[in-house]
Specification:
The protein has helices at about 15-20, 60-65, 120-125, 130-135, 150-155, 160-205, 315-325, 340-345, 355-400, and strands at about 10-15, 20, 40, 60, 70, 75-80, 90, 100-105, 105-110, 155-160, 215, 225, 230-235, 240-245, 260, 265-270, 275-285, 290-300, 305-310, 350. By secondary structure, the chain is of the alpha+beta class.
C-alpha cells in the first residue's frame, strides 16, 4: 500500500476494522449490575497528550450510562474533535481502575481483537501517518471538526505476528517512557523559570533593585514594606482608567486596518480606531479579568478592556508590570460573568519610586525578561524536537522500517 510502503517479510497490511472493534456499543454489564456502583469517568481534560489518564473522577453507572462514551479496561480511546485530536489526546486504558468506564462523547474507542496487541494498536494511532492523514480528513465547521469513524475503521496498519507486536510494544513502552520523562522535566523547568520571572518582577516593582535600601512600612496591606524614599499614591492620581467602546462581532474581521483588543488581547481587526499611542489594557470581564496587555499605535479597545492612560511622566512598562503583580483579578465582582469595577481599581494604592529609579527598574525588568524568555523559548524548542523524535520513532518501528526484534 502506497501510504505504508514496503513492510518486512511475514507482516501483513490490514484495515483496522478487520482486527479491532471501532466504537463498539456492546456493554460488559447486565441488568443485574449494581447501577449505583461508581466507575471511572473521563472527560476530555482528564486525558493527556502523552497517553496518561487521571482517574480521580468517579460517577455512578446509572448517571452516565446514557449519553456518554462507554469503554472497557484495555480499550483505546482517541479524541475525535479539534484541537484535541491534533494535539494527540488519547490513551490505552490498560490500567483503568474499574472494569469499564464512561467518558466524553468526543472519544472514538478501539477494542483490539485476538490478532491485535492493544498496546501495538495504540502506537499505530500515534504515527505521523495516522495523525497527518486523519487531520486532513477531519470534517465539520471550524472549531467543531471531527475525525470521521470511517477513517479509523479503514486505516491500514502493518501487522507483524502477535509475538512481534508484543515485543515492539514493550520496546516502545520503554523508549517513550524515557522521552516522556525528559519532556516532563523540561516542562517543570519552564514552570520554575516562569515562577522566577514573576518573583523577579514582583521584587523590582514593589521594592526596587537595590537590595541594601532602607525600607519603611507602606501602610498598604498587600504591599508591605517599601523603600524609605518611595511614596504611596492612589492609582487614579497617576493614570486615567476607562473602559473601551462597544463593537459587534460583525465588525471584527480576520484581517483589517486596525487591531481590536478585548479583555484578553487581540480579537481581530476593524476599520476604525479608538486610541493612538502606547497604553496598558486591563481585562474587564470574564474569568481572566485583571489580565494585563499592552497596545501601541492606532487600535480599537473594546468594552471588555480597561484602557490605562498615563497622567504623569511615569514609565508604561513599570506601571503595567506593577498592575500585573497586583493580581487585579482578586478585585473582580462575583457574578455569572465576573467583572472588574473601574472605580474600585482606580482607588487602589500603589508605590511610587522617583522617575529616574522607575526607568532603572524598567531597564532591569526588560533585561531579565529577555534572558528568561530566551531560555524558555530554547526549552520549548527542545520539547518540540523530543516530541517529533518520539513520533518518528513510533512511526518507523510500527511499520517495520526500524527493526527492534
Amino acid at each position: 500500500m502506497e501510504w505504508i510502503g514496503e513492510i518486512p517479510e511475514g507482516w501483513e497490511v490490514k484495515r483496522l476494522k478487520r482486527v479491532a472493534l471501532i466504537n463498539n456499543s456492546k456493554r460488559n454489564y447486565t441488568q443485574n449490575q449494581n447501577l449505583d456502583a461508581e466507575v471511572v469517568f473521563l472527560p476530555m481534560e482528564k486525558v493527556s497528550e502523552n497517553g496518561e489518564i487521571n482517574q480521580e473522577l468517579r460517577k455512578r453507572i446509572k448517571d452516565v450510562s446514557t449519553g456518554f462514551t462507554y469503554f472497557d479496561k484495555g480499550d483505546i480511546i482517541l479524541a475525535k474533535i479539534t484541537p484535541c485530536f491534533e494535539n494527540g489526546k488519547g490513551a490505552h486504558l490498560k490500567n483503568l481502575e474499574t472494569a469499564f468506564g464512561f467518558g466524553s462523547t468526543e472519544f472514538h474507542t478501539i477494542k483490539a481483537l485476538e490478532s491485535l496487541n492493544s498496546r501495538f494498536a495504540f502506537y499505530q494511532t500515534k504515527t505521523n501517518l495516522f495523525m497527518k492523514v486523519g487531520e486532513g480528513l477531519m470534517s465539520g465547521s471550524a472549531g467543531q471538526k471531527r475525525l470521521p469513524t470511517n477513517f479509523v475503521e479503514d486505516f491500514p496498519i502493518s501487522l507483524p505476528p502477535l509475538s512481534e507486536q508484543q515485543a515492539i510494544a514493550d520496546f516502545l513502552d520503554r523508549k517513550t517512557a524515557q522521552i516522556n520523562s525528559l519532556i516532563e522535566k523540561k516542562r517543570r523547568l519552564i514552570e520554575l523559570l516562569q515562577e522566577e520571572r514573576i518573583a523577579v518582577i514582583n521584587q523590582a516593582v514593589t521594592r526596587g533593585i537595590d537590595p541594601s535600601v532602607k525600607l519603611k512600612p507602606s501602610g498598604v496591606e498587600w504591599l508591605g514594606d517599601i523603600p524609605e524614599h518611595w511614596e504611596v499614591k492612589k492609582l487614579k492620581w497617576v493614570a486615567d482608567l476607562r473602559s473601551g467602546e462597544s463593537i459587534t462581532s460583525e465588525d471584527i474581521r480576520p484581517e483589517g486596518e486596525y487591531p481590536v483588543y478585548g479583555g484578553n488581547g487581540l480579537r481581530g481587526y476593524t476599520f476604525r480606531y479608538t486610541h493612538e499611542g502606547h497604553f496598558i489594557l486591563i481585562g474587564r470581564q470574564g474569568a481572566l479579568c485583571g489580565n494585563i496587555n499592552y497596545a501601541s499605535n492606532m487600535f480599537f479597545a473594546s468594552e471588555h478592556a480597561v484602557v490605562v492612560t498615563l497622567l504623569k511622566k511615569i514609565d508604561l512598562l513599570w506601571l503595567g508590570e506593577l498592575l500585573r503583580t497586583m493580581n487585579l483579578n482578586q478585585y473582580s465582582l462575583a457574578s455569572a460573568q465576573p467583572g472588574l469595577s473601574v472605580d474600585r481599581i482606580k482607588n487602589l494604592s500603589i508605590p511610587m519610586p522617583p522617575e529616574k529609579e522607575m526607568t532603572e527598574i524598567k531597564n532591569f525588568i526588560q533585561v531579565k525578561m529577555v534572558h528568561l524568555d530566551s531560555t524558555i523559548s530554547k526549552i520549548e524548542k527542545e520539547i518540540e524536537l523530543l516530541s517529533e523524535y518520539r513520533t518518528a520513532l513510533i512511526s518507523e518501528v510500527v511499520t517495520g522500517k526500524v527493526k527492534v526484534v
